[in-house]
Write a structure and sequence with these properties.
Blueprint: E1 2-7, H1 10-20, E2 27-32, E3 42-43, H2 51-60, E4 65-68, H3 71-76, H4 78-84, E5 89-90, H5 94-101, H6 103-112, E6 120-123, H7 126-133, E7 140-144, E8 153-156, H8 159-171, E9 182-186, E10 191-200, E11 204-206, E12 211-212, E13 215-217, E14 221-224, E15 229-232, H9 239-259, E16 265-275, E17 278-285, H10 293-296, H11 304-313, E18 327-335, E19 360-364, E20 367-370, E21 373-376, E22 380-388, H12 391-402, E23 410-411
Parallel strand pairs: 1-2, 1-4, 2-3, 4-5
Antiparallel strand pairs: 6-9, 7-8, 7-9, 10-11, 10-16, 12-15, 13-14, 15-18, 16-17, 18-22, 18-23, 19-22, 20-21
Helix pairs in contact: 7-8
Bound molecules: adenosine monophosphate and glycine.
Length: about 425
């Protein structure tokens, strides 16, 4: 089959790499792609939000399946445009992608169906939100309703901070229209775990667990980023936790969406917090995580093209989803200064060191080809993943491989996977 992938980050590189191994796949395209993806897929210069052009390309090139990697096009309704054109596509329709696109929607859904999550209130008026804060307990969490590049969540320690936060979100519109509504919720503590899953509308199959490191600096200091590194599996995601989530969260979410007339097909990414009162949902995403995908897919044994097909066809119950009994760690190599201000255009050296080294991968995020060289082209530049028999070995291997790559202003966290020492 011919597959078109929509996206341009490390996540899409990992998806392309995995699909390229499938005997079912004869040709891969990626729009718009990046320098690393071009090794597996023909990159096409169409933006992820150009729905009509994407659909036209899929028709012209007789694409059998389009896989949407990113949140913006999903929330914007790209799947509906493809379906209206009679094209097969992997991902939720707009009315289901709202699970990620509106935090107020997802909180109301969880409340209605008894899915464990933090206590909350929704607001579409700044005055009401400010009044509510007067009697609230601190710290408290403010969330812009819509997509905000993972930056729309503010944890406020005091009433003054929270008031300023409401003004930023709802009055100054720091996150644009995403701040027309907001959620104010209870602050929770515990370990965070990411569980990604395949969903075909009725059946859900979860992938192996992972944990992200969102802050820019060692010791979880500094600003929130798109993710500085991941490990998989999470040693804190025990069989007992899994059993609880299976009973109260995973299938319950899929069934709730179906009951609401919003059948969900695609990926549901459960952002969980393991609190003293049991696992609770922090957030839902309607797509693979980045950089979770870079540790989960290298451990997956099952043919990804077969799983995508099964989700689209509603036959996921017939798939036996299998993962290696090993571990993986991904360290993101960023440009110094990310996520605030950084320079681009530096040559990347050492990529060839990963060729034919089993268990070592370099996934491109912000790179491009320039005059025959590969240069840095973003804040997050590369994700270096290594597998190992266990988490400690995987971590050692990943940090060894980090040294194989060199570029000016290379920056990375030194403590990805440190939490495993506490397990
Ligand atoms: P979200 O985009 O909802 O996952 O939020 C981003 C990050 O904010 C999460 O990964 C958590 O670290 C933190 N966070 C979100 N909601 C809460 C909460 N209710 N209590 C504590 N931390 C939270
Ligand atoms: N790694 C978090 C995310 O993809 O949203």
């Amino acid at each position: 089959m011919k597959i078109l992938i929509v996206g341009s980050g490390g996540r899409e590189h990992a998806i392309a790499w995995k699909l390229a191994q499938s005997p079912k796949v004869e040709k891969l395209y990626c729009a718009p792609g990046n320098a690393g993806i071009s090794e597996y897929a023909e990159c096409v210069n169409i933006g992820a939000m150009e729905f009509d052009r994407l659909a036209e390309f899929a028709k012209d090139h007789e694409i059998d399946l389009t896989v949407i990697g990113m949140d913006d096009p999903l929330v914007g309704g790209v799947v509906d445009v493809f379906e209206a054109n009679g094209l097969r596509v992997f991902g939720p329709r707009k009315n289901a992608a709202i699970l990620e696109g509106s935090k107020a929607f997802s909180k109301d859904l969880m409340k209605k169906y008894g899915i464990p999550t933090a206590a909350y209130e929704n607001f579409d008026d700044a005055q009401a939100a400010l009044a509510y804060l007067e009697t609230a307990k601190f710290p408290i969490v403010l969330k812009a309703d819509g997509l905000a590049l993972g930056k729309g969540v503010l944890i406020c320690q005091t009433l003054e901070e929270a008031k300023a936060g409401v003004a930023e979100i709802m009055l100054d519109k720091k996150f644009g229209d995403s701040g027309n509504r907001m959620v104010i919720e209870e602050f929770m503590t515990g370990r965070e775990v990411s569980v990604l899953s395949f969903v075909d509308g009725k059946t859900i199959k979860t992938m192996t667990s992972a944990q992200d490191h969102k802050r820019a600096g060692d010791g979880d200091t500094g600003l929130n980023t798109g993710g500085m590194g991941t490990f998989s599996p999470s040693p804190f995601y025990t069989e007992e936790v899994d059993a609880f989530c299976k009973e109260h969260i995973f299938q319950a979410t899929v069934d709730a969406m179906a009951k609401e007339g919003r059948e969900f097909k695609g990926i549901i990414f459960f952002g969980l917090m393991l609190t003293a009162d049991g696992p609770k949902v922090l957030e839902y995403n309607a797509r693979f995580g980045d950089p979770e995908t870079q540790v989960v897919l290298p451990r997956m044994k099952t043919d990804l093209a077969e799983v995508f097909d099964a989700c689209v066809d509603g036959t996921l119950d017939q798939i036996d989803l299998e993962f290696e009994d090993n571990a993986a760690v991904c360290v993101v190599l960023a440009s110094d200064g990310y996520p605030v201000k950084y320079e681009k255009g530096f040559e990347i050296r050492g990529l060839e060191n990963f060729k034919e080294k089993e268990g070592y991968y370099v996934f491109h995020a912000g790179t491009k080809n320039q005059d025959g060289k590969i240069v840095t082209n973003g804040g997050r530049v590369l994700g270096v993943t290594a597998t190992g028999a266990d988490l400690k070995l995987a971590r050692k291997n990943a940090y060894d491989a980090v040294q194989w790559i060199d570029f000016d202003n290379k920056y990375y966290r030194n403590d990805i996977g440190k939490a495993i020492d506490e397990a």
